[in-house]
Amino acid sequence: MRGLVTAVYLFLYTPIALVVLFSFNAGRNASDFTGFSTQWYGKALSNTFLMEALQNSLIIALTSAALAAIFGTMAALGMERLGAKTRAVFDGLFAAAIVVPGVVIGIATLVALVEVFGFINPALAAIWPGNQPPKLTLGYGSIIAAHGLFTMALVTMIVKARIASLGRDIVEASSDLYATPLTTFRQIVLPQILPSILAGFLLAFTFSFDDFIIAFFVAGSNTTLPIYVFASIRRGVTPEINAIATMVLIASLALILIARFLMRERTTTT
Amino acid sequence: MTSLPSCNASSRFREEASLLVVTNQRTSRMALSPDTRKRLITAALVAPASAWLFVFLVLPFIAIVVFSFGERAPEGGYQAAFTFAQFANLGSRAAAFKNTLVLAPIGSFVCLLVAYPVAYYLAVKVSPQYRLLLVSLVVVPFWTSLLVRTYAWMYILGARGIPHLLEFVGIENVRLLNTPGAVLLGIVYGYLPLMIMPIYVSLEKLDRRLLEASADLGARPLSTFFGITLPLSLPGVMTGVALVTILLLGEYLIPQLLGGGKVFFIGNALVDLFLQSRNWPFGSAIAVTLVVVVVIVLLVAMRIAWRVAGTRQVDLV
Question: Which CATH class is domain A49-262?
Fold first, then answer.
C-alpha cells in the first residue's frame, strides 16, 4: 500500500518537477539537459507581451478577488438573516455558479454582454454631448465580472461554513452585555471569520489568476497570462514556456499554501 | 474601486449603530421599526451578490436559451427566430458528445480507483504527524494552474519525451500524444486531488471503534473493509465521483492539449462554434444541452447519495 501511495505522489509531482528542471536547461532541446542556465528566465522577463499579460492577470485577479471577498462575505452574513425559502434560492444560485462549466459561463457571459453592449452603445452615442461617446467593450471589466461570479460563490461557501461553526451563545452574550450590533460584529464575529475571508480571497485570486477558459471568451483584445501561455504552447514548446510555467507554479503554490495555513483549523476540502 | 464597497459596508454598520442609539434614547425620530431596519440591513448585505448573480448568471443563461432557438446570421452571430433547427442539428456534433460522455465517466472511475487507496492510507494508516503535510501535498496541485500541469504532460508524451526515450531501447514510432489514452491520463492527473479529498474526509470521520469491534468479533481485515469501511465512505466516494464527472463534462484544456483536435470534448466544440465558425445559435443549443446533462448527472448523484445516506443510517442503528 505504501508503495502504491508513493507512486501516486511521484505521479503527481514528476511532471511538475520536469517542467521546473527544464526551465533551467541551457539548450533548446527539450529532451536532453545540456547544462544549467537561467537564460530562459531572462528571455521571459524581458518579453514585453508576457509582462503585459502578467500585469493584466494580476490586476484582474486582485480586483475580482477583492470584490468576491467583500461581496461574498456580505452575502454569507446576509443569508444568515434570510428566511428559509429565500436562503434556498440563494444557495441554489451560488451552487449553480460553481457547478455550471466554465466554458458555458464564458459563452453565456460573452453572448449576454455583446447583446447588452449592442443595446447600450447606440443609446449612449445618442445622448452623449461630445463627439466621442464612451463605448462599452469586452476587457478588464468583463473578465473581472465573470471571474467574480465563481469566486463570490466560493467565498460565500467558505465564510458560511465558518459562520455555521461559530457558537451563537457568544454573540448572544455580547448583546446581553449591551454591545451594539456593530460592536458585536467588530469584536466577536469579524475576528473569528477573518481567516476564512482571507483564505477565500486567496483561493479567489488563485482561481482568477489560473483561469483560462472564461477569460478566453470574454477578454476581448486583452491578454491574460494563461491566454498568453496557451497561445505560446500552440506556437510550439520552447524552454521559455517552462520558465513562465515555473514562475506561475511558484506563484500559485505560495498562495495556496498561505490559504491552507489560514484555514488550518478546518479539515474539510477546498 | 475596491475600497468603495467596504466603505459602504462600514457606514451601513455605523448607521445601524446610530439607529440603535436613537431607539435607546426613545427619541422616536426614526419612523423605521426595528423589524424593518433589520430587513433593510439584510437586503443591503445580499444586494451586491444578488445583482452579480442576476446580471452574470441568470441573464446570460436566459440569453443562451433565447439564442438556442435563433438562427445564424449570414455574417456569423445571431439572428432572431424561433426554430428548433439548432437542437435538431445536435447530431452533427455527436462525436464530441460521445467522447465526453464516454471519457468523463471512465476518467472519473479511474480517478476513483487510484484515489481510494491514497485516501484510505492518509485517513487510516499514516501517522498523524505526517498527515497534514501529505494531505496538503495532495491539495496543492489542484490549485496550481491546470494549464501548466497539462502542458507538462504534453511535454512528457510528446515526440521528444517518452517516445524519444523508447527509441533508445529499440521501440520506435510510438505515438502517445493526441490519443484517447493521453486525454484519459491528463484527466486522471488533473482531477485526482479532487477525488482524493472528499473520500479522505469521509474516511477520516469514520469511527475507529467500529473497526476494532469488527476485528474483535473475528472478522478478517478484508471483510471489515467491505462490511464497514467501504459502505461508510460511500458519501465521500459519491461526492468525489459527482464533482469530477461534472467538471469533466465541461473540460476544454485537457482534450485540446493532449487530444490535439483528434479527441475533442463538448467544450472544444463550443470554442470552435463561438470563436471560429461564429455559429452562435448552434453553440448556444449545445451549451444549453451541456447544462441539462450536468443537471441530470447532479440530480442522479444526489439521489444516489441520499439513498446511500439512508441505508447508512439503517446500518448504524
Answer: mainly alpha
